[in-house]
Amino acid sequence: MAHSSRIAMFNVGISILVLALKYAAFLLTGSVALYSDALESIVNVATSIAALVALGVSAKPADAAHPYGYAKAEYFSAVIVGVLIVVAAISIFREVYLGWLEPHAFDAAPMGLAVNAAAGVINAIWCAVLLRTGRRARSPALIADGQHLLTDVISSAGVLIGVVVAALSGWERLDLVLAGLVALNILWSGWKVLKESVGGLMDQAVPGETLTKIRQVIAAQATGALEAHDLRTRQAGRMIFVDFHLVVPGDMPVCEAHAICDRIEDALEAEVADVLVNIHVEPDEKAKQQGIPVL
Fold this sequence. Notes:
Layout: H1 2-29, H2 32-58, H3 73-101, H4 110-137, H5 140-169, H6 173-201, H7 208-221, E1 227-236, E2 239-247, H8 254-271, E3 275-282, E4 292-293
Parallel strand pairs: 2-3
Antiparallel strand pairs: 1-2, 1-4
Helix pairs in contact: 1-2, 1-4, 2-3, 2-5, 2-6, 3-5, 3-6, 4-5, 5-6, 7-8
């Protein structure tokens, strides 16, 4: 988590730098489309701060009040990201509406376009860092921030090209059309972030490939038991929770059943990072003849 927190701190600084560059590009050109691009960067600053706070909270160890830890705090950060994205989109739509009622010329100054392009390049590089770090650390906050930044990179490139076309063609309202398209793209990004965050808050199961790995480890390490059934998983930020029933011979000593459970837990912890395992041992009459066969 220390590496993720450092990345989150850098994220705040880079977001502020990109915001300054994009706002400077808007001042140099007067383009509503570039203004919409700068407004989205304000959201980036706010969400980067939210991600930093969430990572700090989620890193706190479990205590009496929160025995399963604080990992879900990152989902609240991701929800905030989604809400702020929607607010930014509404603000852009407002500017487009006012600009359509009272069109005004803009200046596609080369310096302004170059500054905006530089901000886009910085965002593209940093987006790759955020997504890679977030996926490795299974951090919803960093992944949400990276996904939003990816949307920002794509829309910024489209806006930059469109502003140049609008200036060359003389169709000034194309600038407003582009700003509206940016707002729609932002709304779509916000919807995806909110959808994934709600899934986490609702105790969504682990991805299929992770579940397959968990089942394989249980099957390989449960030698001495008869079967494992009622396997359940859920995710809370970087943490993965696994619980299932392990059926053993009715006359098996408690110490032997306990040893099997320890072996399974150790193997799962070695294969799946940040996993918490809970095993309920049952006698053979509880077998269901379904679930995970023991190898």
